[in-house]
Amino acid sequence: MIDSSTDRSQPLVEQVPVLVVGAGLAGLSTAMFLGMHGITSLVVERHATTATHPKARGQMPTVMEAFRVAGIDDAVRRAGYDTSLPMEIVIGPSLLGTPYKTLVESFDFDLTSISPTGMGMASQEAVEPILADRAGAWGARVQFRTELDGFTVDDEGVTAELIDLQTGGRRTVRADYLVGADGWRTTTRGAVGIGAHGHGALSHWVNTIFRADLGAPMEGREFALVYLQNPELQGGTGVFGGTDEPGRYVLSFAFDPEQGEQFSDFTEADCIEQIRIGIGDLDLEVELLDRAETEFAHRLADSYVAGRVVLAGDAAHVMPPTGGQGGNTAVLDGFDLGWKLAMIIKGEAGPGLLASYDVERRAFGEWIAEYQYQNLLQRMTPGGAEKDGGEAGRDPLDLMFGSRVVDGAVCPEPDDDHELVEHVVTADSRPGSRAQHVWLQRDGEQISTRDLFGRSFVILAADPAWRQAAGQVSDQLGVPLDVQVVGGDDLVDPAAQFAARYGVGEDGASLVRPDGFVAWRTEGAADPAALADAVRRVLSLSTVG
Ligand SMILES: Cc1cc2nc3c(=O)[nH]c(=O)nc-3n(C[C@H](O)[C@H](O)[C@H](O)COP(=O)(O)OP(=O)(O)OC[C@H]3O[C@@H](n4cnc5c(N)ncnc54)[C@H](O)[C@@H]3O)c2cc1C
Questions:
Q1: Residue nearest atom 20 of ligand 1, based on CA coordinates
Q2: Does domain 14-79+121-192+302-390 have CATH number 3.50.50.60?
Q3: Cα 472–476–479 angle (5° rounding)?
Q4: CA angle (517 as vertex; 515, 522 as ends), nearest 5
Q5: Atom number, ligand 1, closest to the C-alpha of residue 314
Q6: For burial by CB atoms within 10 Å, which of 180, 463, 486, 505 has the most?
């Protein structure tokens, strides 16, 4: 059949729901979680492959919980270092020198009362292909050697120009939304007029990857991460670390463009000399595998959203890597964006829900970037070892699990203190907080409350009357609501903890978002009107309907 309405003089424009720029941790996570929620995306990446430098090493338990929702937590855990083995993080003059300060001796925390999963210790270069595979399995198309070369935005969507870097061919793509996950050198942010603030550019680094036989001194120290403070080292400071591959290591040293130094000044011989100083063995046999340039900066976007353009990962928040949170934050941006954009595109939420991504993730980005900055002053500033780092006075568990979403897609209680980070041990699953992990049983198998979340909004209640209330609200608003009745025959609560840990008593309910944060709760009996009101507020739905 001939479609006479088609104007064949115009090139066909490819349509996609979401165009993601950048196949790093932020872009691939966004694509994967969008795919999990049924929305396909096109991911364009100018490089030929995912990351070839180890960079981010280590996944926080909250990231592993997100990966568990996507079914890739085991693959990530297998790809990385075994966290039950010793893992030292120190400040010292060299790998072999006596440390000035020990920051961490082990990550073998017992988290079983807080989370159904633990930490991961895989490198970015191992994680990105896992994300890309799962994103692809859920319908995302990842196109390498493809560059975004400008775009325009209107009220209905984004029109983007792409270049195939292999052939030079150009094409136009039309998307409902564009996600700028284009890293620390983002052009997306500037193109939509979003400014940035923060401590600015901090230092410049040569990151080397090398192979060496470090022999006996590395036995039992395969993980060692050493922040170097040593006047012999170029720039006086640096960092040494292992990778997922035995015998392959990374070492970074600083250079100063204001002193006329450039990345290209450092020859292979210079790099090998710096590696030997950082190791503390000036005769060591070293095979230099690669080197790359990085800027450490503290640069935070003034907004993460401009109309139909959304920023994620380093494009939104560049932070020094001291403390290992940049990549983790990038993944969690994608986790949040996935369900929010998907619900908006499917018409289950109002476009206003996107504003909550900005409010929630920006607040977290500001907080975590300052934490990393304080760590930089301590760990990678000559003479800084005696300073307090970002963790000063804080329980490490709070960093892992204590962050809240306030002023976003939640219905805070009247007495909410609006604290962004709370102490996880005393937290009580109030709106804005992490929905607590409680071990339950289903079909004789242990299951965490956390395993009930991820795909949709979930109502957790002891009273089965919430099933009918939720069904009514779901039909009325067109929003899927999954009801899990805890304490009955289906979900057994062996220690009878649920009602107290969720603060909902025997009659009430907790409304949990797909990312496992509590959106709303009540101690009152099943009430469709109250539930509908909460769902509307959280999802920016109009009061009509
Ligand atoms: C030495 C070092 C160590 C680190 N260690 C840790 C750590 O231990 N833990 C941690 O959590 N974080 C760590 N980080 C930080 C972490 O690597 C970053 O936060 C993370 O890479 C951010 O991911 P992203 O997806 O936002 O950006 P990126 O990984 O930078 O990805 C952005 C991608 O966008 C592509 N791109 C840009 N513009 C275009 C365009 N116009 N068209 C197409 N593609 C484009 C780029 O090629 C790039 O691949 C470290 C960083 C460094 C440098």
A1: 327
A2: yes
A3: 95
A4: 135
A5: 26
A6: 180
Hey, which CATH number is domain 402-538, 3.40.50.300, 3.40.30.120, 3.30.1360.30, 3.20.20.20? 3.40.30.120
Q: Indicate if ligand 1 lies below 6 Å from the C-beta of 179.
A: no
Cβ–ligand 1 contact at 124 (below 6 Å): yes
Q: What's the CA-to-centroid distance between 267 and ligand 1, angstroms? A: 24
CA 98 vs CA 106, 160, 243, 280: distances in Å:
18, 54, 22, 10
From the list 81, 177, 227, 371, the catalytic residue is 227
Of ligand 1's listed atoms, the one at least distance from the Cα of 47 is: 47
Tell me the CA–centroid distance for residue 52 and ligand 1, in Å. 11
Is 370 close to ligand 1, i.e. is its CB under 6 Å away?
Answer: no
Domain boundaries, the chain: 14-79+121-192+302-390, 402-538
What are the mean pLDDT values of the chain's consecutive 10-residue runs (545 residues total)? 40 90 98 98 98 90 97 96 86 94 83 92 96 98 98 97 97 98 97 98 96 86 88 94 90 95 96 97 96 95 98 97 94 98 98 97 96 89 76 77 94 95 88 96 96 97 97 98 94 94 96 98 98 98 67
Residues 499, 505: contact at Cβ < 8 Å? Answer: yes
Q: What angle do CA 286, 290, 291 make, to 5 degrees?
A: 105
What is the spatial distance between Cα 200 and Cα 374, in angstroms, rounded to a whole number? 14
Say which residues have a Cβ less than 8 Å from residue 339's Cβ, sequence separation at least 6. Answer: 33, 37, 513, 514, 515
Question: Closest Cα to residue 512, out of 334, 330, 339?
Answer: 339
Q: Which residue is listed with tokens 């209640």? A: 461
ipTM for the predicted complex comes to: 0.97
C-beta 46 within 6 A of ligand 1: yes
Residues in contact with 107: Cβ distance below 8 Å, sequence separation at least 6, in sequence order: 58, 83, 87, 119, 121
Separation between Cα atoms, residue 302 and residue 297, nearest integer Å? 15
Is the Cβ–Cβ distance between 81 and 25 less than 8 Å?
no
Place of tokens 């403390």: 323
- The pick from 30, 41, 55, 251 for probing ligand 1's pocket by mutation, whose C-beta has the most ligand atoms within 8 angstroms, reads 55
CA of 299 to the centre of ligand 1 (A): 14
Asked whether this chain's domains 14-79+121-192+302-390 and 402-538 adopt the same fold, the reply is no
The answer to whether residue 177 is catalytic is no
